[in-house]
Design a protein that fits this description.
This protein has a seven-stranded antiparallel beta sheet with strand order 3-2-6-9-10-5-4, with helices on one face. Strands 1-13-14 form a three-stranded antiparallel beta sheet, with no helix packed on it. Strands 7-8 form a two-stranded antiparallel ribbon. The protein has a single domain (about 20-200), classed as Pnp Oxidase, Chain A (Roll), CATH 2.30.110. The mean pLDDT is about 95. It contains five helices and 14 strands. The two termini are about 30 Å apart. Helix content is about 15%, strand content about 35%. With about 210 residues, it is of the alpha+beta class. The structure holds flavin mononucleotide (FMN). The site of flavin mononucleotide (FMN) has 17 residues, from strand 3 and helix 2.
Amino acid sequence: MPEHDTIKMLAFDPRDHAPQDIYKLMVGSIVPRPIAFVSTMDANGIANLAPFSFFTAASANPAVVCFCPMVRRVGSPKKDTLRNIEETGEFVVNIVSGEFAEKMNACAAEVAPEIDEFELSGLTPLASQLVRPPRVAESRVQMECRLLQLVRVSDKPMGGTLVLGEVLRFHVREGLVEEFRIDPAGLNAIGRMAGKTYARTTDRFDMERPL
Ligand SMILES: Cc1cc2nc3c(=O)[nH]c(=O)nc-3n(C[C@H](O)[C@H](O)[C@H](O)COP(=O)(O)O)c2cc1C
């Protein structure tokens, strides 16, 4: 291993480069990213389903998760997910397992708002208990959420809005949870790398934390 003073680092100032290139630096470095498979419903009751890998947890007390729909191009309309959340204040985050990765991917197609991605992908809608958008029955962990806050980080192309939602109810498939601990093998979650590359969660290792 060379000494740190002999390793050459390349510096990139985001303001000097195209947003598409900065996006590539981000999605190549911030890996693997979990995937929020977000179901929403518009004011007319049409369901929508789309994956978002700019996704994480923000708080456990209260339980809050967040994800980021981005602006596609100059003048392009808001993503259906964001528009529906602005209209209704409700969404469901469904965790993606390897077994239905391809169906999840089918929902990333840019289709008209009146297209229901449950029908498009063949995934099964399951009524939620506290919000209108349905859950994805194939998903082994589902979180019913109410909008807490929208943070408009940037309206420029490739800019994002942070959607923070309070989890009103968690649903975990029976047999997958013991004393609130989720079995990672049973969940078989996948993560997103850059471009068309994904990661599995099957190669795990343990490390004791220092006291
Ligand atoms: C695995 C995966 C992760 C994605 N992550 C994001 C993301 O974090 N933010 C985003 O704006 N789009 C993301 N996309 C693209 C959206 O899913 C895509 O634009 C989708 O059509 C949006 O749907 P909507 O208009 O129904 O909301 C992702 C796509 C895939 C396949």
